[in-house]
Structure formats: structure tokens, C-alpha cells
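Long-time lurker, first post. I've been practising inverse folding by hand and with some scripts of my own, and I keep getting stuck on stretches where the C-alpha cells seem ambiguous. Below is the full C-alpha cell string for one chain I'm working on. Before anyone asks, I'm not after the true native sequence, just a reasonable design that respects the backbone. If someone could post their per-position residues I'd love to compare against what I wrote down in my notebook.
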């Protein structure tokens, strides 16, 4: 297959495709601090100075007010905020905090999670109504964290006002939150950030990464044998695989980036029940199971699933990758068996479950009666201004087809094509594009007739749909 970079002019018919797109805002914000300076994502002028040292956000203050605040205000109302920090050393009136829900970066309003080791004051979730030093206490736990350990901290905020806080010191997050409260004062994620306050000598403080992502809705109510225990997250690099292990994704196939997936428990890897895991799908979806390649025999419940050529790579020390199987399920309850349900043998790590929509969004079918576009469900932030796109034209395509999109700022762009089972066929674009309007032209003369799935990814934004080829 050839890639034709000649700009493909299609002006008047593009107006047929200007209905709003449902872009999936799975990752709202992420920073790994892998550069020389903080950059425009963070406010620096007039704020306590943070810097980047060896790929970590770094603060070393003597006195109060070491706050790192995001420059962008986010509108998501249902989200997960997660970060990894260290060391949490004790000292005279030393506090560590995560701020979120701030409607303005300059005012002390919003939510704050504080760890205050001095006098064993512990971990506190509060609402600041004008003073972050003395917030309204929503929940409090008198615990002492190990200053020699790195801690991942996860805050889960639902649109109904429920806020949960989880801790992970290397062995995975516990099933139950450390702190839990319900408050609707600041519904949106707003500005987020981190802070350090002290009234004693400065100590180095590091942040490995910070991420905010929307809560997925495709998969809901995961249960194991009638007990709600597993969590739903979004698949991506550095995201934990399990709720009880500190193993992360190293790479996932392009079509699964940002997909809703169930973080199972590795402790359940020896389960033999025929009906073990149940969850609900809010629409018809392609369900994917990532399974241990060391298995000598698969469980019977995986019979009839399509094995894909794609692999998922992880930091699991027992196996560096997982095989991927797919099957289409209608909306409703899905029931899967245990990892070692009969006649399975040889699997030494528990499976994972992911899902992607397989049906088109309502209202798109009439544009081209022969082909309906599939768009992933929008996250709570809705339509993002990072990318606007208009789908492929012509569609159906005979020899060449093009997709036009506009970037508000420079971003890494990938354009991939898969078959109906989700198996990757080709990557047409994998480059960085500057701000402005672009057209990617595909030569499809050598591709067989049929329906294909495409995914256009720019930074953290995804547009996906169907492309029909008719020669």
C-alpha cells in the first residue's frame, strides 16, 4: 500500500460531514515531566517555583506556599485524578497537598487532599471555601505513611459528588478507599495541581507524573461472584493492569488506546468457576480479553473468540506480553468464567477485559446509507478544541480517500486501519503535525473490498469510524 501525500481537495462535499463529532476525552490531562522546563501547561509567573530535574517535577522550598497549578481549566465532572509522589517526610508543620476542582487558579477555592505527618495529623480530604490552610473537613484518617516509599495517589470524583481517595505504595490499590465523602460544591475538575507547605528547613519533593482521565461509561458494574470489587479504567501506557499489583502497561495496540477496561485482581488468577466475572455494556461492543500466552489450554468460555495478531506489553515480570482475543456482545450483561475455568491450564497471571463500541452514533446513518460511522462515546468534557475533523471523503472509497482535520496546536498524529475484528492492518500516519488544517490521503487501490475501522489520534484525542472500500 502506498501513501499519497498530495493534498486531496474536497471542499463542497465536506459540508455533508460537519455534524458534531463525539471525540473520546479519555485522558484529560497528563504530564510525565520528561523535558527541561515546566512549559505552558503550568502557571509559573507569580507562583512558587517548581522545576524539572531528571524527568521529575521538583520542589525545594523554605517557607509556605509551594504550589504547582495547571494553566488550563477543565470542565469534566466525572474523573480520576492520579499522581505518584515522594518522599513524604515529616517536619515542623510540613504538609503535602493535591488540589482539584479549583474554579480559579488564584483563589483558595476547590478541593484539597492533604497529608500532614506532623503530630500524626494524617490524611485529610477537604473543601476550601477561601483558605486552603483551613478547609472544611470532608473526611479524615489518622495514618502515617512511610517516608522511604513512593506513593501513587488516586482520587475518583463522580458527577453525583462522590469523592474517593486510594493509596498505593507498590502492591496495588486496596478495594476500599482510604477516604470517602460526598460534596457537590465544585462540580468540575477545574484547575488542578500540587503543593508543599512547611515552616521548617526545606526538603526535596518529587512528582513522577500526574494524570486526569474521564470515568468511562461503556463498561459498568463489574462484579466477581456477586461482589463489586473490580474497577474500570482507561487503557494506556503506565496505567496499572491490576487492582492488587504494581504492574503497568508498556504498550497497547493503537485501536485500544484509551479503551475502557476492567482492572482485575491478579490474586484471582487461579479461579476455576464457569461464571466468575459479570459486567454491563451500555451499548453493543467489541469485547477484548488479554490472556496469558503461557497457557497450554484455554478455558472453554473463550471458545469462539477471535485471536488477534496484536499483543499487549506489560511490566509483569512473569510474562512481558498478553495475547488478545475479541468477540462482539450486545448491550446488557456479559458473563465470563474464571482464569483457570475448565479445561484451562498453564495461565499464571489473571486476564484483563476491555471494550470498544461497535455501533454508530445516532444520526450519522443517513449521511452515507451504505456505510455508517462509528464514533467512540464522548467523555464528560465533550467536544475538545484540540482537534476538529470531518471523516473520510469519499466514503465509500474506490482508489483514494482523504480525511481533513484541524489542530489548534502541534500534536503527534497517528492514523491506523483495522479490520472488522479490530486486527491492525496498517499505520498510514505516525508523525508530528503543526497547528493548522491538514489532509491525510490514503491510496486504497490495493486493499480488498469491505468495511474497515479507522482511528485518527491527535495527542489525547481520538476520532474513530468505519471506512467502506468498493472498487
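-- Answer (accepted) --
I ran through it position by position. Result:
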Amino acid at each position: 500500500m502506498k501513501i499519497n501525500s498530495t493534498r486531496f481537495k474536497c471542499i463542497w462535499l465536506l459540508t455533508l460531514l460537519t455534524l458534531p463529532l463525539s471525540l473520546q476525552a479519555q485522558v484529560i490531562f497528563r504530564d510525565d515531566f520528561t523535558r527541561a522546563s515546566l512549559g505552558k501547561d503550568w502557571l509559573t509567573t507569580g507562583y512558587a517555583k517548581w522545576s524539572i530535574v531528571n524527568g521529575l517535577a521538583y520542589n525545594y522550598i523554605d517557607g509556605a506556599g509551594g504550589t504547582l497549578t495547571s494553566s488550563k481549566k477543565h470542565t469534566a465532572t466525572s474523573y480520576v485524578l492520579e499522581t505518584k509522589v515522594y518522599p513524604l517526610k515529616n517536619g515542623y508543620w510540613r504538609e503535602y497537598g493535591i488540589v482539584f476542582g479549583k474554579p480559579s487558579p488564584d483563589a483558595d477555592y476547590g478541593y484539597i487532599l492533604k497529608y500532614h505527618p506532623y503530630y500524626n495529623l494524617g490524611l485529610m480530604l477537604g473543601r476550601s471555601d477561601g483558605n486552603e490552610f483551613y478547609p472544611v473537613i470532608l473526611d479524615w484518617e489518622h495514618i502515617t505513611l512511610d517516608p522511604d516509599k513512593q506513593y501513587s495517589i488516586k482520587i475518583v470524583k463522580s458527577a453525583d459528588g462522590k469523592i474517593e481517595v486510594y493509596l498505593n505504595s507498590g502492591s496495588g490499590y486496596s478495594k476500599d478507599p482510604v477516604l470517602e465523602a460526598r460534596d457537590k460544591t465544585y462540580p468540575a475538575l477545574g484547575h488542578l495541581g500540587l503543593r508543599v507547605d512547611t515552616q521548617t528547613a526545606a526538603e526535596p519533593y518529587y512528582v513522577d507524573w500526574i494524570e486526569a482521565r474521564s470515568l468511562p461509561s461503556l463498561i459498568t458494574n463489574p462484579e466477581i461472584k456477586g461482589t463489586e470489587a473490580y474497577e474500570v479504567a482507561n487503557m494506556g501506557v503506565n496505567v496499572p493492569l491490576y487492582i492488587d499489583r504494581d504492574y503497568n502497561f508498556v504498550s497497547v495496540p493503537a485501536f485500544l488506546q484509551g479503551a475502557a477496561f476492567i482492572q482485575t485482581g491478579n490474586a484471582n488468577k487461579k479461579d476455576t468457576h464457569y461464571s466468575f466475572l459479570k459486567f454491563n455494556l451500555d451499548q453493543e461492543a467489541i469485547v477484548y480479553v488479554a490472556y496469558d500466552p503461557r497457557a497450554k489450554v484455554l478455558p472453554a468460555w473463550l471458545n469462539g473468540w477471535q485471536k488477534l495478531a496484536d499483543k499487549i506489553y506489560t511490566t509483569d515480570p512473569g510474562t512481558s506480553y498478553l495475547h488478545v482475543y475479541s468477540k462482539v456482545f450486545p448491550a446488557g450483561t456479559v458473563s465470563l468464567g474464571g482464569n483457570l475455568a475448565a479445561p484451562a491450564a498453564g495461565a499464571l497471571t489473571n486476564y484483563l477485559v476491555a471494550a470498544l463500541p461497535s455501533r454508530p452514533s445516532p444520526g450519522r446513518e443517513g449521511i452515507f446509507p451504505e456505510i455508517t460511522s462509528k464514533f467512540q462515546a464522548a467523555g464528560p468534557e465533550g467536544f475538545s478544541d484540540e482537534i476538529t475533523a470531518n471523516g473520510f471523503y469519499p466514503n465509500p472509497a474506490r482508489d483514494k480517500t482523504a480525511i481533513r482535520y484541524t489542530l489548534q496546536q502541534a500534536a503527534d498524529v497517528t492514523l491506523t486501519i483495522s479490520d472488522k475484528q479490530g486486527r491492525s492492518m496498517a499505520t498510514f500516519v505516525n508523525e508530528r503535525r503543526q497547528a493548522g488544517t491538514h489532509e491525510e490521503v490514503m491510496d486504497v487501490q490495493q486493499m480488498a473490498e469491505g468495511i474497515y475501522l479507522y482511528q485518527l489520534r491527535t495527542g489525547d484525542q481520538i476520532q474513530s469510524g468505519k471506512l467502506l472500500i468498493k472498487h
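A couple of notes from the structure itself: The radius of gyration is 24 Å. The chain has no helices and 33 strands. Happy to go over any region you disagree with.
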